[in-house]
């Protein structure tokens, strides 16, 4: 009995309507002191209010099966994307109820005002949808979903604690990966900025011999097959397949810089996952290497169906280190792990010319054995500052410094190109599209 009363007390909350009614009763008692004509009216009003409170409490606790709630959370969340979550509600009371919902989402979102209001008629069902955008990978712990149910009287509310605690992992951007795959199937990649690259010449990888149709290149006529069939036959060629594509991700402190809530490392991880997916669709072999003060993880290039999941599991656990990148260790790892010429896409960041000069000798040595594409990031904040009009001396100083850093970035591109190293300077939000475009261009031009 004591336990039941304790639960009733802890789950009972007073509503604004009750406080308004108590205020009116208090005012009536006050006026009755000066106006005897009111007589016992304040006592009657207060007694009616107490009776209504008891009725309200009885209505909220009269049904054994009151309100059903289920929170539908995906098995995993996609980093940097809007993930849809659902709250399913059903009312088993014989009357309409007003419901307030607090969902205890993980602390990583730093959001304490997630509150939903709704009304449900008897036996009515409803689904509430909302979206969460995580900006860090790892484990996210959801708490309780708390319901505050009010009867039509609305004097008190009853709290229900349902949909208990659960842990959901946040993986690299697999929602965007799925979007790219669907667009690739429907030939709608241009919707997200993927360009159609004009193929220069044709690959020397033979595909098949087929009948000549208008528009085929005369230079591909197979004269021997033509003589046998007494009809024009042409050779067809396909893009070279099974080329090795490695994404190398720098995890040093240079990749900790934030942009729109996500670090540069997270942008690089999302782009690597999508680039690996595109490479596998193109029948190439995708691999992965992560590097900081030493080589951390090496996933050898392969094109098996399970390769993408293997890459995703490695990327899920990666975190930024706070030391310098050991480029010598990277060169040694590439020489030992890569047995043939490969496309090495190196995601890193250089903020000064001196930082590039320290790493340049190792980049030149890597480019000697492989096709190296260095991807680093444009500082969009500095670009905004350099584009703004200076209004005072301080503004001129800031604008000059911003332009100096932006000019250094362009110098880095020229310096790398001078040594035969491919470069891609891009804003973080355009990273994925630009990297995929560059990969398709390399394939079309047969640079690898």
TrEMBL record:
Pfam families: DUF58. The keyword Secreted does not apply. Residues 208-372 form the DUF58 domain. SUPFAM superfamilies: vWA-like (SSF53300). The chain crosses the membrane at residues 12-35, 41-61. InterPro entries: DUF58, vWFA_dom_sf. Keywords: Membrane, Transmembrane, Transmembrane helix. PANTHER family: BLL2464 PROTEIN, SLR2013 PROTEIN. This is DUF58 domain-containing protein. It comes from Pedobacter chitinilyticus.
């Amino acid at each position: 009995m004591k336990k039941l009363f304790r639960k009733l007390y802890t789950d009972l909350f007073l509503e604004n309507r009750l406080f308004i009614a108590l205020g009116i009763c208090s005012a009536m008692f006050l006026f009755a002191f000066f106006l005897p004509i009111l007589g016992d009216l304040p006592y009657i009003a207060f007694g009616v209010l107490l009776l209504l409170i008891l009725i309200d409490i009885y209505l909220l606790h009269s049904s054994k099966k009151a309100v059903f709630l289920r929170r539908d959370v995906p098995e995993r969340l996609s980093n940097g994307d809007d993930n849809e979550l659902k709250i399913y509600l059903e009312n088993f009371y014989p009357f309409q109820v007003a419901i307030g919902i607090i969902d205890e989402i993980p602390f990583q979102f730093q959001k304490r005002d997630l509150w939903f209001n709704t009304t449900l008629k008897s036996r009515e069902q409803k689904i509430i949808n909302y979206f969460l955008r995580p900006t860090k990978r790892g484990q996210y712990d959801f708490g309780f979903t708390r319901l505050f149910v009010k009867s039509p009287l609305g004097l008190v509310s009853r709290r229900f604690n349902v949909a208990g605690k659960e842990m959901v992992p946040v993986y690299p951007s697999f929602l965007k990966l799925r979007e790219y795959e669907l667009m690739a199937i429907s030939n709608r990649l241009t919707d997200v900025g993927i360009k159609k690259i004009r193929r220069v010449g044709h690959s020397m990888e033979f595909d098949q011999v087929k009948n000549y149709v208008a528009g085929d290149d005369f230079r591909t006529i197979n004269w021997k097959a033509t003589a046998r069939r007494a009809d024009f036959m042409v050779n067809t060629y396909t893009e070279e397949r099974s080329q090795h594509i490695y994404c190398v991700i720098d995890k040093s402190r240079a990749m900790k810089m934030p942009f729109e809530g996500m670090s540069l490392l997270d942008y690089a991880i999302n782009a690597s996952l999508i680039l690996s997916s595109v490479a596998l669709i193109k029948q190439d072999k995708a691999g992965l290497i992560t590097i900081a003060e030493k080589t951390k993880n090496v996933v050898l290039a392969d094109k098996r169906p399970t390769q993408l999941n293997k890459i995703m599991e490695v990327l899920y656990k990666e975190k930024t280190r706070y030391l310098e990148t050991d480029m010598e260790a990277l060169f040694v790892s590439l020489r030992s792990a890569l047995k043939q010429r490969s496309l090495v896409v190196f995601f890193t960041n250089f903020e000064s010319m001196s930082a590039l000069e320290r790493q340049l000798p190792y980049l030149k040595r890597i480019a000697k054995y492989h096709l190296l594409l260095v991807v680093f990031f444009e500082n969009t904040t500095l670009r905004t500052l350099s584009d703004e009009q200076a209004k005072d001396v301080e503004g001129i100083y800031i604008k000059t410094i911003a332009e100096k850093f932006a000019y250094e970035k362009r110098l880095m591109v020229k310096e790398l190109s001078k040594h035969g190293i491919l470069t891609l300077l891009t804003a973080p939000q355009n990273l994925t599209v630009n990297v995929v475009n560059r990969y398709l261009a390399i394939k079309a031009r047969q640079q690898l």
